[in-house]
């Protein structure tokens, strides 16, 4: 990423400072006309997205204010790089990314390099890395990336913390003991009918959701050793993985196709038969792992992706500011994610 940082600094000097912000005017779809299209096209060209593959020159729009397919294709490439839905629609989050200039990119990469400097130079060869900023999981086995998938992490105000904590067992068909913080807020006014309809009972002073496909933890929990009650788990709302912005939980990490991931870990750890029997039982069952698998919860909104390219995403928790200022950067753009009230799940 050092080369990417130097390139971003060079782009910053060439640009001569921060450009005039592009103002969002509502949703703009391909075929629409909007006064912001020329500015959008110029920004896409400056970022290298709007190029003619033959002539190598920025494409010109057929009509200045027409949002053409060519510009929409460039927007889709931008959206893909920043982890947004690749729909070509210009909305608030895409405008937010369009307003990130070379200075913001250099700042993000510098912070990412500093965060990398804090990590152990030789991490465990077998481990799970969760990039909270990108809402993405990577599973390494003996130093080789063998699996990656989307995750859902904590929303602003309920941020997933930075920590290192191993998975020590799989829990099939887990129950969920609802934290008092959720019971006293989202569930403060629910009655017996609500509890019954959600397969919940009161037990020992807590509300407990019984095992089943509608359980907020889904059908598997990956128990971890830490004092913050943070763990990986399945979900009863898999449709949320289709969102580009997946900072939605109360702090724990929901894993896409968690049952498939549990099967993969069980096979790698030699407990596949025990796991399958536990899963099929329908009852909460614990399957210890012979060797604990380290998990690192990291925050990198600039990183090298699986194709070897440096990718910069927004800063969903607005955590980069203090690090950037300590490195001598100005405050920069703020791209903190808005918290959505989606469900009560952890």
Automatic annotation (TrEMBL):
GO biological process: cell wall organization; peptidoglycan biosynthetic process; regulation of cell shape
InterPro entries reported for this sequence: LD-transpeptidase_YkuD-like (IPR052905), LD_TPept_cat_dom (IPR005490), Peptidoglycan-bd-like (IPR002477), PGBD-like_sf (IPR036365), PGBDSf (IPR036366), Transpep_catalytic_dom (IPR038063)
Keywords: Cell shape, Cell wall biogenesis/degradation, Peptidoglycan synthesis, Transferase
Pfam family, one: YkuD
PROSITE patterns named among the record's database cross-references: LD_TPASE
Residue ranges occupied by any L,D-TPase catalytic domain in the UniProt entry: 126-274
An MF annotation (GO) of this entry: transferase activity
Pathway: Cell wall biogenesis; peptidoglycan biosynthesis
Active site: 233 (proton donor/acceptor), 252 (nucleophile)
Transmembrane parts of this sequence: none
Family: Belongs to the YkuD family.
Name the UniProt record assigns to this protein: Murein L,D-transpeptidase YcbB/YkuD
Natural source organism: Sphingomonas trueperi
Lineage: Bacteria, Pseudomonadati, Pseudomonadota, Alphaproteobacteria, Sphingomonadales
């Amino acid at each position: 990423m050092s080369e990417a940082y130097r390139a971003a600094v060079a782009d910053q000097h060439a640009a001569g400072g921060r450009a005039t912000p592009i103002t969002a005017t509502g949703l703009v779809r391909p075929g629409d006309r909007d006064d912001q299209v020329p500015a959008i096209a110029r920004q896409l060209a400056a970022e290298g997205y709007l190029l003619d593959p033959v002539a190598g020159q920025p494409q010109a729009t057929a009509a200045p204010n027409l949002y053409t397919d060519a510009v929409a294709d460039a927007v889709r490439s931008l959206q893909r790089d920043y982890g947004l839905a690749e729909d070509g629609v210009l909305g608030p989050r895409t405008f937010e990314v369009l307003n990130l200039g070379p200075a913001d990119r250099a700042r993000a990469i510098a912070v990412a390099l500093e965060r990398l400097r804090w990590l152990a130079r030789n991490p465990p060869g077998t481990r799970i890395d969760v990039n909270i900023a990108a809402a993405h999981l990577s599973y390494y086995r003996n130093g080789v990336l063998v699996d990656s998938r989307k995750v859902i992490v904590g929303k602003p105000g309920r941020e997933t913390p930075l920590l290192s904590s191993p998975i020590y067992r799989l829990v099939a068909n887990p129950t969920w003991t609802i934290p008092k913080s959720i019971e006293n807020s989202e569930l403060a006014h629910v009655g017996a009918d609500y509890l019954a309809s959600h397969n919940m009972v009161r037990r020992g002073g807590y509300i407990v959701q019984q095992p089943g496909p509608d359980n907020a933890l889904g059908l598997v929990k990956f128990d971890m050793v830490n004092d913050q009650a943070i763990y990986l788990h399945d979900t009863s709302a898999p449709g949320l993985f289709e969102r580009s912005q997946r900072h939605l939980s109360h702090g724990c990490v929901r894993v896409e196709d968690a049952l498939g991931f549990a099967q993969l870990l069980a096979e790698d750890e030699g407990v596949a038969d025990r796991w399958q029997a536990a899963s099929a039982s329908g009852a909460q069952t614990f399957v210890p792992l012979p060797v604990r698998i380290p998990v690192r919860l990291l925050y990198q909104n600039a990183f090298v992706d699986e194709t070897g390219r440096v990718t910069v995403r927004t800063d969903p928790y607005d955590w980069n500011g203090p690090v950037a200022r300590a490195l001598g950067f100005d405050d920069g753009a703020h791209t903190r994610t808005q918290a959505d009230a989606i469900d009560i799940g952890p």
